[in-house]
Amino acid sequence: MLTERQRMILNAIVDDYIRSAEPVGSRSISKRGGVGFSPATIRNEMADLEELGFLEQPHTSAGRIPSTKGYRYYVDHLVKLEEVNEGDLLRVRSFFAKKMNQMEQIIQHAAMILSNMTNYTSIVLGPETFDNSLRAFQLVPLNDSSAVAIIVTNTGHVENRTISIPPDFDMSELEKVVNILNTKLAGVPLHRLQSKLFSEVGEELGRYVDHCEMIMDSLGKALSSESEHRVFLSGASNMLTQPEFKDVDKVKTIMDWLDETPVLMKAFTSLPSGIQVRIGSENDHDAIHTCSLITASYSIDGKSLGTIGLLGPTRMDYGKVISLLDVLSKDMAVLLGRWYK
Amino acid sequence: MLTERQRMILNAIVDDYIRSAEPVGSRSISKRGGVGFSPATIRNEMADLEELGFLEQPHTSAGRIPSTKGYRYYVDHLVKLEEVNEGDLLRVRSFFAKKMNQMEQIIQHAAMILSNMTNYTSIVLGPETFDNSLRAFQLVPLNDSSAVAIIVTNTGHVENRTISIPPDFDMSELEKVVNILNTKLAGVPLHRLQSKLFSEVGEELGRYVDHCEMIMDSLGKALSSESEHRVFLSGASNMLTQPEFKDVDKVKTIMDWLDETPVLMKAFTSLPSGIQVRIGSENDHDAIHTCSLITASYSIDGKSLGTIGLLGPTRMDYGKVISLLDVLSKDMAVLLGRWYK
DNA sequence: CGTTAGCACTCGTTAGCAGTGAGTGCTAAC
DNA sequence: GTTAGCACTCACTGCTAACGAGTGCTAACG
């Protein structure tokens, strides 16, 4: 589709623009090492590339900048993935070598490292607990009208809810409830807990325990709140260092988008696994039409657990970021793999 | 210290400036209803107020703006606390009337409401768990080399850590461990758990359970990580709407500050209880010398639980925000009071 | 003596305008 | 097919002039 020379020129323009954030002119490309053509020739090719939709011109007398389509071609065919540099690799490895005993801490910290190393904004989704299954259930009474319900999943994830207990309930019966729930619900996936509770456990429970309707009711409600997985952000302020966002209004819409956890989550779930690059207008949400979002889901045994993402201007250092995300997501999968087994 | 007229003028200037974000001139004050003086008189007083340090002049031919000292005087002596308006009050009340069964959700949501209602950035510190005491301890085995340790406190707060288990450990012994730990450690404050574990439980445990050294060790480590209370941010992007922060560089330092959870936490803990107003340079951290931070700790029975805060430009709507924070922190205390008892 | 009208002065802001230079598209020659 | 040459465009810079909001000072007023 593109001639070898066109590809070379497109590649040069994208590379230059990523470095400088300024429209690239024909002269500066011609002067590059390894390019044996005059500015005029380059100009002709650039005009062609613009007509094909790979380049854009901010105004008549300016150089060219890549369009979304241009970046897309660059990412798909031209980009040379950089080896992650020694220092960064060391940082990642030493981070994952650390012993940690709180999942949240790990993820939070990973997000921080990522944003620090790239100067972009990192977004990390914690492991999906949706299809975890119940390993253990526990009830701890707090006072005579409430208790904490604790759910431990097969992956070691712990959720807790506060539930109400009828005032006339005999606390010593709680143990019975816990036992019945554990035997009946062990191994059931979280998203089926609620329906299973009502369909199979309710009756059984009623047979052995008095006044359990209210508990059932309260438990049912507690289980309904879908176990939303947490979103960790880091380095949002990095957006402000990008020259394309020196205008406050532009960055405001992006920050608003970042503030909206639900929207953000929607953009992240239902992503195909592996590394995904969404460039500019390819993003579903208008607010980030001037941004690129690169995501990598970390998975284990082919099952996707969660997602790591980086948000930056379309003029992103794809070569560096993609390979870094690759390394990080794989290391993360390994770590969590150890964790789970 | 100040004459009645000076107070009136200072009050007018602060009010005007809070509304308009523009330096206030003598004429506009003179034209206000209820002010019976000519611009010239006002000018004389303004010159005096500037000499006293309450006002500043951005440049010779501009109006005056309040200095930190001016705001301080305003907040201490002049501000008229607005009644929280009907709509807002309704929103707060209906929010707290909702039944919720996850503490984190409540706090997160409260932060959101607060930032939405004020258009400032809200910062909420979750309840301090430091001096909670242990109500129940539980161990759930995950596989043959690790288990989840779960700690429930008297306030219903749940913490969990993953710990290692020696490969040759008999899983059926776990129950013994749990029992011993529960009887020995129930009622012990979290911050004393670790030392208590080593000083009193270790020996006892060794008597009944084989190979427990590694478990002790792992547990000890897990308990050492101080239960940092979580920080919830909302509406960081609101900063970008303030005219004083239309310059990206200024807002960058503030955003960086917000990104640094530890620094932020330090600024929040060890605050006196009640409503605190920190204006401009009164703030410890340089990054927010152009901001005001208003905090209210929510407490129950005189014991401080956590803190709600609002960050905005020094030109903040103190009258509105202070009363709103007052209402919110009290409602929050009531809600958590119900929760805990 | 406090208050006020008048006035010169300051200084940031805006608009207009010429000059500069980077970069282009086109054409004709190599 | 490639390139040198050239006219053209247009953002950007620096300069000047006009504007106006607001001040400080002085002198007059009640």
From TrEMBL, chains A, B:
InterPro entries registered for this protein in UniProt: GAF-like_dom_sf, HrcA, HrcA_C, WH-like_DNA-bd_sf, WH_DNA-bd_sf, WHTH_HrcA_DNA-bd, WHTH_transcript_rep_HrcA_IDD
Gene3D superfamilies (alphabetical): 3.30.450.40, Heat-inducible transcription repressor hrca homolog, domain 3, Winged helix-like DNA-binding domain superfamily/Winged helix DNA-binding domain
Annotated GO biological process: negative regulation of DNA-templated transcription
Winged helix-turn-helix transcription repressor HrcA DNA-binding domain location: 1-72
Domain Heat-inducible transcription repressor HrcA C-terminal: 104-322
Coiled coil listed as a keyword: no
GO molecular function, one term: DNA binding
Keywords: Repressor, Stress response, Transcription, Transcription regulation
Domain of life from the UniProt record: Bacteria
Functional note: Negative regulator of class I heat shock genes (grpE-dnaK-dnaJ and groELS operons). Prevents heat-shock induction of these operons.
HAMAP family, per database record: HrcA (MF_00081)
Family, as annotated: Belongs to the HrcA family.
The protein's name: Heat-inducible transcription repressor HrcA
Protein source organism: Paenibacillus sambharensis
Lineage: Bacteria, Bacillati, Bacillota, Bacilli, Bacillales
Gene: hrcA
